[in-house]
Specification:
Elements (H helix, E strand, L loop, with lengths): L26 E6 L4 E6 L11 E6 L1 E3 L3 E3 L6 E9 L2 E7 L9 E4 L2 E8 L6 E5 L5 H4 L16 H4 L7 E4 L11 H4 L4 E6 L22 E5 L1 H9 L2 E5 L1 H14 L7 E5 L14 E5 L6 H10 L1 H13 L10 E4 L1
Parallel strand pairs: 1-17, 3-12, 3-14, 4-11, 14-16
Antiparallel strand pairs: 1-2, 5-6, 6-7, 7-10, 8-9, 9-10, 12-13, 13-15, 16-17
């Protein structure tokens, strides 16, 4: 498999810059793997495709306001990890201004660069006091959303069921759901804190040489029990797929045992799924690991055909865009 095998042409104007006016008012492409068919529906029809015995599984991570600006506006920090409340691991822009010993002021706190990590150039910054992150932090919207974060993003870039703070990016397939729709469908939660790796492109042509980022996850006992009892598991988003398939690899398929830890699972064709039977997902970037994952489930040729149809039909792409249900 080559990275270029997962490329497609996307007009820039199809990249959604804002969410739909009301949550859930998105289009939904339905891809049937067995029939090889592609159907155009609306997300409000989603429940029609849930069968008796299905279990919907969602990621309840909550997006943290991880983007910060210095008081003078010259330095931008993206907090990717916290070693303590006052010691942060950050991506810094511009990096050349932040050598070891240099300082940055955010609100009434002063941070000093105490180390630079060799891989990726992330800075370890120690602050002299804690920062009120909800007040001074911004949501780190993906780079293809070409605008600053706004007040509406505080609500719309979170799922209605978000509860475990720790993600940098949202599990965007879940953004479509309302409380009212979820109340009609049997569902469970896992947690995977989406990290900075979700923004990093594949830089090698040989897919097998790509080093996948690692992310923290948790699969609780109650969710594991519900999954094991289900006829079919319907994953909401690629983050849920990564959790369940990581656990399935360790357990040899279902039944899954409860566990927590980190996963760097990289799913690309060919791949035999051990837990997930269907997937609701948004549309993904060309040549991305997420497009490779959905191609492993639906087949590369069918998936690229579906993406070409989505472009023809003027679907909205990426985080705030429309969705696809793979059956």
């Amino acid at each position: 498999m080559r990275t270029s095998d997962f490329d497609y042409d996307l007009p820039k104007e199809l990249i959604a810059q804002h969410p739909p006016e009301r949550r859930g008012e998105s289009r939904m492409m339905v891809v049937d793997r067995n029939a090889g068919s592609i159907e155009h529906r609306w997300f409000r029809d989603f429940a029609e495709f849930i069968r008796p015995g299905d279990r919907l599984v969602l990621n309840d991570t909550r997006v943290a306001p991880a983007r910060f600006f210095s008081n003078d506006g010259r330095i931008e920090l993206l907090k990717v990890d916290a070693r303590s409340p006052t010691v942060w691991q950050c991506l810094v822009k511009p990096g050349k201004r932040m050598k070891v010993g240099r300082t940055v002021e955010i609100a009434d706190a002063t941070g000093t660069v105490i180390d630079i990590l060799p891989e990726g150039g992330e800075r370890i910054i120690e602050f002299d006091r804690e920062i009120d992150e909800e007040t001074h932090g911004h949501l780190a919207l993906p780079p293809y959303i070409e605008r600053p974060d706004e007040a509406e993003d505080r609500d719309r870039y979170q799922t209605v069921y978000a509860r475990e703070t720790g993600a940098i990016a949202a599990p965007t397939a879940g953004l479509h759901f309302t409380d009212e729709m979820l109340a009609t469908i049997p569902h469970s939660f896992v947690t995977l804190h989406v990290g900075i790796g979700t923004f990093r492109p594949v830089s090698v042509e040989d897919v097998t040489q790509h080093h996948m980022h690692s992310e923290r996850f948790s699969l609780g006992a109650e969710t594991a029990e519900a999954i094991n009892a289900a006829d079919r598991v319907v994953a909401v988003g690629t983050t849920v797929v990564r959790v369940l398939e990581h656990c399935a690899k360790l357990d040899g398929g279902r039944p899954l045992a409860p566990r927590r830890g980190e996963t760097d699972i990289f799913i690309y064709p060919p791949y035999e799924f051990g837990a997930v039977g269907a997937l609701l997902t948004n549309f993904h970037l060309p040549k991305s690991t997420l497009l490779m994952l959905v191609s492993a489930l639906a087949g590369k040729e069918l998936m690229l055909e579906a993406y070409a149809r989505a472009v023809e039909e003027r679907y909205r792409f990426f985080s705030y865009g429309d969705c696809m249900l793979i059956l």
